[in-house]
Amino acid sequence: MTTPWMTYLLVPLIKIVVILVVLILLAAYLSWFERRILAFMQIRIGPNRVWPKGWLQAIADALKLFSKEDVIPARAEKLVFLLGPVLATAPALIVFSVIPFGPTDMFRLTDVNIGILFILGVASVGIYGIILGGWASNNKFSLMGGLRSAAQLISYEVPMGFAVVTVVLMANSLSLVKIVEAQKAQHVWFAFPGWLAIPGLIAFFIYFICGVAETNRNPFDLPEAESELVAGFHTEYSGMKFAFYFLAEYANMVVIASIATVLFLGGWLRPFPNVAALAFLDVIPPIVWFFAKVAVFLFVYIWFRGTFPRYRFDQLMALGWKVFIPVSLINLMAVGLGILLLGGPR
Amino acid sequence: MADQDTGAPVAPAAPKPPWEEKPVPATPQDAREHPQVRELAEHVADAILEAVEFAGQITVTVSLERLVEACRACKDRLGYGYLVDLTAVDWKDRAEGRFDIVYWLHRHAGEQRLRLKVRVAEGAEAPTVTTVWKTANWMEREVFDMFGVYFAGHPNLERILTWEGFNGHPLRKDFPIEGIDTGAAIYPDVYPPGGGPVSGGEEGA
Amino acid sequence: MTERAPVHLSADSEEMEISFGPQHPATHGVLRVMVKIDGERIVETKPVIGYLHRGTEKIFERETYNGCIPHTDRMDYTAAATNNQGLVGAVEKMMGITIPPRAAYIRMMLAELQRIASHTIWLGTHALDIGAQSPFFYTFEEREKILDLYEEYCGARLTLNAMRVGGQPFDLPAGWTDRCRAFIDQLPAKIADWERLLTKNRIWKLRTVGIGVMSGADAIEWGLTGPPLRGSGVKWDVRKVFPYDHYEEMEFDIPIGTNGDTYDRYLVRMEEMRQSVRIVRQCLDRLPDGPVMAKVPKVIKPPKGEAYFSVEGPKGELGYYVVSDGTDKPYRLHVRPACFINLQALPELVRGHLIADLIAVIGTLDIVLGEIDR
Questions:
Q1: What are phi and psi of C325, to 5 degrees?
Q2: C76 and C38 in one domain?
Q3: Residue B125 domain flag
């Protein structure tokens, strides 16, 4: 008894609200988890005071940022200054409209048949938020930081794109749902393809490392490091606008982790989805498998931060252009060749 | 020694360890015959005014005019390639010159040290030794800052520890340890006479 | 590998002058560096110091010799024990005082523990500047244990005032040697942990190899001492060249580097920590009994004259030049500050590098503004 209004307006609206709320909470709590996990790696405790045992820390931080004075530098370009955080955050959230969390229609907002293309396109818009924020601040150092950050993001999009195309070749579709279903049909997560064993793994690593660079995270976080000469594009931002940049960074982390899960780790599929002997694992709902895999990636993000020194900017760019792009390009050609020789995709 | 009661020999009392003896302070000795001084005299004999040995360290006083020559001889010909320290001492009201500039040199071959001194009168210029040892740069700046000795030929003789505009040379003996009025004495157009940060003028606390 | 670009100014170069500091998280104190950059390359730097100048040498002229000792603590405040050691050594030299061997061994232990403590600060902050955030916490944990040992001994963690002219003011408290031994027994494993995090790390090597290179001959010319000198390949350490206390009886090696870059200085300091552990262990094994204070007059009045005495501090050769006029207060007491002279070479070390390397080089020089400015 579903009317068109329900199908096309009410249900999607509910899904949007649920996704946004979950996502924003996840991004906020990710910052708290990061502080705790980093603390444990550094033999200290991290925030554990805000009732109970620190669980409300993220909410407290959000409230704090909410209540701060709204400062706009005197000669900043006002409209663009306000637009920056919006342009950084909105794409990160919009991307989740096409990501499937589970096998049926209930677990996704929509399935666009150019899913991965849509994601790459929308995510690129987020870079504008950084450039505009850096420029509109009317601060020499913010501008330098913003430009550096933008250069880094644009450079690392190329190998990331090639890694993604590798998967598209293997799945023969741009739609995210079809990619996951192809992984089920081919009995293999694309990170570890049965045939062409190496290129899939290489594509996986390249995707994830470029994803770390895309989100300006350690070891690629020079543009926003505190101990550097240039303070970064968000120097002049405070209060809610800063909260948006902050949210954008963590939301982007979740985006990269989710896409890596869908493309390489089988999305909502349990390990070895076609092996009947492991069917007892099906009691765990697919969405839990999805979020478990995302959590692994997020933990690796945090682990990187606790371990590595950061790259200098020229070394970062050299790595992107001189190492990742050739490797991902050759990888792509190898996969293409392999598919051709093996008689087309299955 | 013999024991008074039995006549049997008694071992002399064991010597006390040096830390239980009264310490014997160092005394200055003339050192003109010391090998390090004789070496230096081979090159700049008439520049040497005095040579003293105290606490195992040789101090040679050279004349101001021949200072750079003596330093160059030390570095190039005698091998004192490491200028350990360069400092000054203010002997107020001394006839031969108010300040002593002290150069403490080290020779890696043989690990020996030598102290050179020159006497500089107040207002007189001392030649720079930055052409001999690069490390003298900041050391001379500090002497200039603290004592007011001008080093002719120094690449950038500016104050190093006190701030630009500071008016005085702190390590001179006539500079009071409480400091001088850092307000009116230095910035007369900002602070009224007698006013300023130190004495609590109108500006600031 | 970073090539140092030959620096030449073209007519259309856009040189920017940036002031880096004095308030900056990475300058290890109130150091200001005026940097002239062309794009990202550093053309010239000019360190500006004096923000922490407290007139220590003037204060020395007002205090008695034992009263000067707390002031020496506050110069290089990360390495107070070696500061003390220099001053009391200079006065003892002039007065001809021999300190009891137990006092000398205690001084050696305090100094070597201080070397480890200072190097832990160096490692933590240097790694933090380059971006590795975790070693800071690991190294400070070990430093806490050393500071606890100091607190037991002389009541202070940082500004120790732990030596007097003629020996030590206090003997070791009961159980101190056991706790010290327990600490140094577990330390080499921790040092190995820190090394595992950094030494072979590709990113660490990218950031430190070839950065801030200085040849051995240049290092002597610029008067560098300590790890900057030894990292450039010159095997020179005051403890071996002019041994004081009982260092001539101790077996330890002097680590040197080969290339004179930041990575070599890092390796030198890590190895120095291990050698310090070795020295402390030998001191604990051979600690003699006896008094801790020599027979010194109640009022310390060195004879008229001057003397210089230096110790190998964690930062380099720390020297004290005492000019006495026969009274109980120094006529002139000058400190040869290792960091001051090491910092002088900064423009030389960073010429042609990128801005991000400036921070690595400041870290590798291991400067403490207290000693630089006095």
A1: -110, 20
A2: no
A3: yes
Residues contacting C30, CB < 8 A, separation 6+: C21, C22, C23, C51, C52, C369
Angle between helices A140-171 and A197-214 (to 10 degrees): 160
Same domain, C173 and C192: yes
Tell me whether residues C207 and A313 touch, CB distance under 8 A.
Answer: no
pLDDT-flagged residues of chain C (< 50) = 1-11
CB contacts of B175 in chain C (<8 Å) are 58
Q: Which residues of B touch C341 (CB under 8 A)?
A: 135, 138-139
Alpha-carbon distance of B115 to A170, in angstroms, equals 79
One domain, residues C120 and C219: yes
Domain assignment present for residue C352? The answer is yes
Domain count, chain C: 2
Provide, as residue numbers in chain C, all residues whose Cβ is less than 8 Å from the Cβ of A322: none
Domain that holds residue C20: 8-48
Q: How many domains does chain B have?
A: 1
C117 shares its domain with C246: yes
Q: Which domain holds residue B50?
A: 26-158
B142 chain-C contacts, CB cut-off 8 A: 340
Contacts of C91 (CB under 8 A, 6+ apart): C65, C97, C165, C300, C302, C322
Q: pLDDT at position A193, please?
A: 63
Which chain A residue is nearest to residue C139, measuring alpha carbons? A42
Residue B127 lies in a domain: yes
Residue with tokens 């950065």: C211
Q: What is the pLDDT of residues A151-194, one digit of tens each?
A: 888 999 999 999 999 888 888 888 888 888 888 877 767 766 66
Supply the ipTM of this predicted assembly.
Answer: 0.86
Question: Considering the domain boundaries, does residue B18 fall inside one?
Answer: no
The domain that holds C294 is classified in CATH as 1.10.645.10
Among partner residues C55, C220, C236, which is closest to B170 by beta-carbon distance?
Answer: C55
Judge whether C133 is closer than 8 Å to chain A, CB to CB.
yes
Q: Is B167 among the domain residues?
A: no
Q: In chain C, which among 347-366 make CB contacts under 8 A with chain A? A: 354-359
Which is nearest to C76 in space by CA: C341, C254, C261, C352?
A: C341
- Contact B104/C236, CB-based, under 8 Å? no
Nearest CA in chain B to C302: B25
Distance from C-alpha of C77 to C-alpha of C54, rounded to nearest angstrom = 13
Both C15 and C120 in one domain: the answer is: no
> Any chain C CB within 8 A of the CB of A294?
no
CATH code of the domain in which B50 resides: 3.30.460.80
Q: What pLDDT digit, counting tens, does each position of C42-93 carry?
A: 888 999 998 889 989 999 999 999 999 999 999 888 989 999 999 999 999 9
Are A93 and A48 in contact by the 8 Å Cβ rule? The answer is no
Confidence at residue C5, expressed as pLDDT on a 0 to 100 scale: 46
